[in-house]
Specification:
Largest interface: A-B, 39 and 33 residues
Strand order of the largest sheet of chain B: 2-1-3-4-5
Mean pLDDT of chain A: 89
Structural class of chain A: mainly alpha
Low-confidence stretches of chain B: 19-28
InterPro entries (chain A): ABC_transp_permease, BCAA_transport_permease
CATH class of the largest domain in chain B: Alpha Beta
Number of helices of chain B: 12
Distance between the termini of chain B: 88 Å
Strand content of chain A: under 5%
Organism (chain A): Roseospira navarrensis
Mean pLDDT of chain B: 88
Low-confidence stretches of chain A: none
Number of helices of chain A: 11
Oligomer: heterodimer
Distance between the termini of chain A: 58 Å
Number of strands of chain A: 2
Keywords (chain A): Amino-acid transport, Cell membrane, Membrane, Transmembrane, Transmembrane helix, Transport
Largest sheet of chain A: 2 strands, antiparallel
CATH topology of the largest domain in chain B: Rossmann fold
CATH superfamily of the largest domain in chain B: Response regulator
Subcellular location (chain A): Cell membrane
GO molecular function, one term (chain A): transmembrane transporter activity
Shape of chain A: globular
């Protein structure tokens, strides 16, 4: 292959890897937004907890698969607790108040982690080695395949869940119209609880998948959370497919931008694209074209 | 009679107590007051925490051994959290209310720079533990510093690259404070070392992937070595991506990641990476006849005895150097008078610290040369001295 194409392929691989992680985080935002119109700014902390708890369990001598399961379970529990103890108690408050509660919860979780697990950086072992795989001249590390594979599997699972199970449909119904959903017998509180649990699960999975590549520490969730939020906006807040498209697109834009234009403006480029989308298609690429009725 | 005797006894007793109190009061007035402001909490706590521990530990030891020129040392410390505004407030308090004889501290370049105008006006000697070259350039009469500068790290790296017969260098730098400053210094000193910068890429400190930047470097014609000024997780990711892309040129990291943590984070990808570091990092590996060995081994064993195996860091070493240099200056001056101590600090010759051999002069308030850095290579997950 000509070198220019190899270069492009390399940029795409690297963009897709980051993009898949952004997509997982963005899906977490979308789930909670759908159920409650709350933007959960503690989503990044779920990502951080996934990685940090896995590391903590590993350092206690637990095997990798068990450590991953433990970390996911604990993060889901924390997500559920956040909903039960903070969000549900304030359910009659404004959406803005709820959003501020999640900001506070995020700061609390960061602080708690730095006190209990320390402020150091930690690396997780790659799931299946570090030997780069050569594809048409471009290279890919095995962990990238894990990330892409697991993200794809999660998406298929979510699709099946939302379209083919009663519970999934109940969540969708709540997102369309909470009052109507309640009238036909959907337990809206339970749906909210479930969406926090699911978001925490997605966050933890993202955090664990990326930790072998980037290392993890108590503040790793801030930037990943922001990028995931940007991806969710890009794709259209509240849209599942939008979150995935937004995430992958954001990763690729960043990577191509850094490669072809200038790495100086890598972060800026992503945010400029988002500003553009918000100006010209305010509901995102795949968002609902909502009209406010007065 | 008995009554009068009792009264006399009571008066003697009271006089004794009064005397005792004044004697005690004098002893409390007497100590040499060392002021300090460090970033013990906050984003730079990894600097301030070992620095404060070092100061406390060695001041305690000096006091245990009879103090300095017969006077005990008293440490007055405030935590800045790396906030320059707080640093300024605390420095003001140290100078005006606590009336300290010297200020040892300032974990970051930002907090140090905020304080310099105050100490210059108050005419109190100030030894900073921060890295930036702006602290001592241009020279300020009352300001000294102990750690080596970014510029020296660049110089050391370029010297090593030249010694391998290479000259065309690609930079990939973090855009955080450390990476940015070192990138500037490296570009500045490159011509002096006959180094040509042929590619200049950057990444944000929280980036998770630098493959795009490195691919660009790989496709740049004639790159002979890659240098990565950066700090935190970024350099570890660069190192992994570098290995993934199968580069055939050497990779240089900076002193910013000179810790076991870096090897742990980068794993196998770190094999063959070179970086300049302070002698403290390889204390045990220094040859027995190395003049710096006793100093760094002494500090390392003392610190680790108190704070646990493997807890020693170069940052605490900067505080050690500052305190010991002050001690030497006071002993040479025979007084803690600020002006006399300042002159003695400037006259320090051949002081051996954890950062290297220090020889101060009126136009050099750092006093270190390139030999302060050791060039290390990572082999089989451990450091090896290159020289």
């Amino acid at each position: 292959m000509p070198p220019a194409l190899v270069e492009l392929l390399q940029f795409l691989f690297s963009g897709l890897t980051s993009g898949a992680i952004y997509a997982l985080v963005a899906l977490g935002f979308a789930l909670i937004y759908n159920a409650s119109h709350v933007i959960n700014f503690a989503q990044g902390e779920f990502v951080m907890l996934g990685g940090m708890v896995t590391w903590a369990l590993l350092s206690q001598g637990v095997g990798l698969p068990l450590a991953i399961l433990g970390a996911v379970a604990l993060t889901v529990l924390i997500g559920l607790a956040l909903e039960k103890l903070a969000i549900e108690r304030a359910r009659n408050a404004d959406v803005v108040t709820l959003i501020i509660i999640t900001v506070g919860a995020g700061i609390f979780l960061r602080g708690l982690t730095s006190v209990t697990l320390g402020k150091d950086l930690h690396a997780l072992p790659a799931f299946s080695g570090n030997d780069p795989i050569d594809i048409l001249g471009a290279t890919l590390i095995p962990q990238s395949l894990w990330i892409l594979g697991v993200t794809a599997a999660v998406m298929v699972a979510l699709h099946l869940f939302f379209n083919h199970t009663l519970l999934g449909k109940a969540i969708l119904a709540t997102s369309h119209n909470p009052l109507a959903a309640r009238l036909v017998g959907v337990n809206v509180n339970f749906v909210l609880l479930l969406s926090f649990g699911l978001s925490a699960l997605l966050g933890a999975v993202a955090g664990i998948l990326i930790a072998p590549i980037t290392a993890t520490h108590f503040e790793v969730g801030i930037m990943l959370g922001l990028k995931g939020f940007a991806a969710a906006i890009l794709g259209g807040l509240g849209s599942g497919p939008g979150a995935i498209v937004g995430g992958l697109l954001l990763g690729i834009i960043e990577s191509l931008g850094a490669g072809y234009i200038s790495s100086e403006y890598k972060d800026a480029m992503a945010f400029v694209v988002i500003l553009g989308v918000l100006f010209f298609m305010p509901s995102g690429l795949l968002g609902k074209r909502g009209t406010e009725r007065v | 009679m008995v009554k009068r005797f009792t009264r006399a006894l009571m008066m003697v007793g009271a006089a004794c107590i009064a005397l005792g109190v004044t004697a005690q009061a004098r002893a409390q007035e007497d100590p040499i007051r060392i002021g300090s402001f460090l970033a013990v909490t906050g984003p730079a706590s990894f600097l301030g925490d070992p620095e404060l521990k070092t100061l406390e530990m060695y001041i305690h030891r000096i006091n245990g051994a009879g103090g300095l020129i017969g006077r005990p040392l008293e440490l007055i410390h405030y935590d800045t959290g790396a906030d320059a505004n707080k640093a300024r407030t605390f420095a003001k308090r140290l100078l005006e209310e606590d009336e300290v004889d010297v200020i040892l501290g300032g974990s970051t370049t930002g907090t140090t720079m905020a304080v310099i105008p105050l100490v210059e006006r108050a005419e109190v000697p100030f030894v900073s533990f921060a890295g930036g070259v702006v602290i001592i350039e241009p020279v300020k009469p009352w300001v000294f510093k102990t750690p080596h500068t970014d510029r020296m790290a660049c110089g050391k790296i370029f010297e090593d690259i030249r010694s391998r017969g290479l000259s065309r260098v690609a930079l990939i730098s973090g855009t955080g404070g450390f990476g940015k400053s070192m990138r500037e210094q490296c570009t500045q000193v490159a011509p002096a070392h006959d180094i040509e910068i042929v590619a200049d890429e950057t990444y944000a400190p929280s980036d998770t992937d630098m493959v795009a930047q490195l691919t660009k470097i790989k496709n740049t014609e004639g790159v002979e070595a890659v240098v990565n000024p950066g700090f935190g997780q970024g350099p570890a990711i660069v190192t992994k991506n570098f290995a993934q892309l199968g580069f055939e040129v050497p990779l240089y990291q900076s002193h910013g990641v000179a810790s076991k943590k870096f090897i742990e984070l980068a794993g196998d990808a770190a094999e063959g990476v070179r970086l300049p570091a302070s002698a403290l990092l390889v204390a045990e590996k220094l040859p027995m006849d190395d003049p710096q060995r006793p100093v760094v081994m002494g500090y390392k064993t003392t610190y680790e005895a108190e704070h646990g195996e493997g807890s020693v860091s170069t940052f605490g070493g900067h505080a050690y150097d500052g305190l010991m240099m002050y001690k030497q200056a006071v002993e040479a001056a025979g007084t803690a008078d600020p002006a006399a101590v300042r002159d003695a600090l400037e006259a320090i010759q051949g002081f051996m610290g954890t950062a290297g051999e220090v020889t101060m002069s009126a136009d050099d308030h750092l006093g270190l040369d390139l030999s302060a850095f050791r060039m290390l290579e990572i082999r089989e997950g451990d450091w090896v001295l290159v020289e």
